[in-house]
DNA sequence: TTTCATATGTCAACCGGATGACATAAATTT
DNA sequence: AAATTTATGTCATCCGGTTGACATATGAAA
């Protein structure tokens, strides 16, 4: 079935294609009557401009790619939502790429994005050899991930979040605090969370304790790692987990082992997604400003595409959300 | 900065564009030496075909839109992930649309998708006047939502899920079972969950009880509705919630009110997302085959686009996941 | 009266690649 | 030797809309 084109509209309205194009793009001189006549014809024929043709001509796809490990993860699911919303506001559309943190996938996507001529890329994933990104420096912004010196990054104030969380545990009387981190070998601003922890611990002359729970291992393995922390003779009375999922896993294990939270051990997480607040409202956590991260990433990227100077780093404040796992049941 | 085109490649290689195009598309006669020469030149110049031009010419964008309420919701976040994965397998890309269940948004998206010439649409949202979809009947598949007689739908076996859940509660000794539903006025296969519940309850001559928790209201209002169920003199000893979030909210309220789950009241949910299994592993639930739903929706849509005959309805089996909220702590 | 802003039209070129038509040779079969 | 297959080239056209150049005709301002 043939689509209605601008030529059909011109013929039907008895004007030239140029005139129709002028109406559509509000260019040059057009009288009101002419404008109306053309618009009526457009409506009559139900003409819908072919954006593919426009994109092709203008060399702008109006697509922005978002590369995340997976939208399965609530944090990235929420990020995706807010990025899409922000993009829509500025007339851009979202092309979503799930890298699964696999560098091969990520490379394939970069190639694909190049073919598809996406206008820009927002990276929230963690893998490809950074050098790959060098070819795209003028059209990339990253979220919580330092790619190259020149690629702007938007992040939460991870360091301060780590400090706030640790401070809170100390305020609540904890003296033996465990820090649960994700993959330590991946260099990400999320590591600043641990640094915040370390600084607070040192300030109080407490002992530093770490366990690492890699992102990609099985649930059972994760649980095993957590269980081991209950085995030694050294008892923790506070836990700062670098993300909420690990925090919740810790809660589950603690409960199973017969420990009472927050009496025996207090727990605080990091991320504070909607999902967590709905599903695990009892968990105290450091809330990342996901919506703002998305908005800043989008506006920074669009500015960058326009050739404007943009900040190399945007750091957004986090907020402490205190609930039962640090404070006792609030009846 | 000018991009390398097929003409540049042809010139550099000393052949005609037609020949280059033949190599790229594997058409007509090409000797191996020629093929190699062209491919080498392509590599040398780092030529990357402009998919916008191809799409424009072939009139195929290779984009499939997925309309969901919001990827913030874990169910849709996971669905998005699996849809993207399935599409990628067949060379298609995902254009994500968050409708927020708002019909105005949805209409805007439909218009936009028309302009962008997406090849097909997968609908997982619930709003626009169905008539709007009539114009797209030959390029739409829906997930868990009956749109028109002619639009194929892929769904979980909601009815059976409702029966299984209710049966399980009855098996565990419950006699006064409450059914928590989402919006009842929205016509969706998810309503079959309640029908499954009703049929099992009637079979056993128990009393039917319903509360409705609209999707879009505030958390506090939801909690209020749930709290009220504890107020009357009629006590429930079992709860079947139409989705896991409501099930968890119920658990939270029950705990706050001093009830013991599963001793005083047993609870079973619906959806069984990854998130829930990680964050609320204690919740018994009916697991939807999200990955299969996505895969079936994608393959059905692609078949439809190819003009093949497709099934009008695909119903995929659900699975019961039993945990502590129906069975007592499994130490 | 002359200039100028307004209003429209025609025409052609362009964006980058795909494709069909047609010509020409060499290599391979019949 | 004739017919066919294989291998390349040239050329023009198309996809649908945008844009610049240029012509023409008003009506208004200088």
TrEMBL record, chains A, B:
Transmembrane segments: none annotated. Residues 2-48 form the HTH cro/C1-type domain. Residues 4-58 form the HTH lacI-type domain. CDD domains: HTH_LacI, PBP1_Qymf-like. Keywords: DNA-binding, Repressor, Transcription, Transcription regulation. The keyword Lipid metabolism does not apply. InterPro entries: Cro/C1-type_HTH (IPR001387), HTH_LacI (IPR000843), LacI/GalR-like_sensor (IPR046335), Lambda_DNA-bd_dom_sf (IPR010982), Peripla_BP_I (IPR028082). One of its GO terms (molecular function) is transcription cis-regulatory region binding. PROSITE patterns: HTH_CROC1, HTH_LACI_1, HTH_LACI_2. It comes from the Bacteria. PANTHER family: LACI-RELATED TRANSCRIPTIONAL REPRESSOR (PTHR30146), RIBOSE OPERON REPRESSOR (PTHR30146:SF95). This is Transcriptional regulator, LacI family. It comes from Alkalibacterium subtropicum.
